[in-house]
């Protein structure tokens, strides 16, 4: 009987290691439900735009997108696309030509980094993702609920609502301050 806990632990490890991508999400790495969590009591959805330029080589952080609760639920349930995540970062190639878009001029080459794991709640946003262009990308930030509430009431405000640290590939972490915008 003394060996039953050890046998159970071994079988659990083997069962977990046999789990893999079911193929129902395209080429994105799978997100283990235990590695990601969404527990926001407030609506955090919108675009978080850097107040100061954030650059790594030719790549400039354009924004962080945070979706609504239903988008997090769908992602956790395995309903994923290769171009959209419930929380994601978008970078512009600052050397690419400018083109006209529906909201003005924009760089013609952009990269969206989708999550491999995240934690989103009323106090923080933590994100990890991977892209061929940027390598591993991680963000660890704190939300200021008072500033976010004011910004939402004013349909966007210039003040920082999210502050944190962004790490891109092997580069040193950078301090980031972001404002909120609801988008079009």
Per-chain topology:
Elements: H1 4-18, E1 37-39, E2 46-50, E3 55-56, E4 59-66, H2 69-76, E5 87-93, E6 98-101, E7 104-107, E8 110-113, E9 115-121, E10 124-131, E11 135-143, H3 145-153, E12 162-168, E13 174-181
Parallel strand pairs: 1-9
Antiparallel strand pairs: 2-4, 2-13, 3-4, 4-5, 5-8, 6-7, 9-10, 10-11, 11-12, 12-13
Radius of gyration: 19 Å
Helix content: 10-25%
Number of helices: 3
User: How far is the first residue's CA from the last residue's CA?
Assistant: 63 Å
The mean pLDDT is 83
| Relative strand content | 35-45%
Low-confidence stretches: 1-34
Order of helices and strands: HEEEEHEEEEEEEHEE
What form results from the Cα inertia axes? globular
Structural overview:
This protein has 184 residues and is an alpha+beta fold. 17% of the residues lie in helices and 41% in strands. It has three helices and 13 strands, in the order H-E-E-E-E-H-E-E-E-E-E-E-E-H-E-E. A hairpin with a 3-residue loop joins strand 10 (124-131) and strand 11 (135-143).
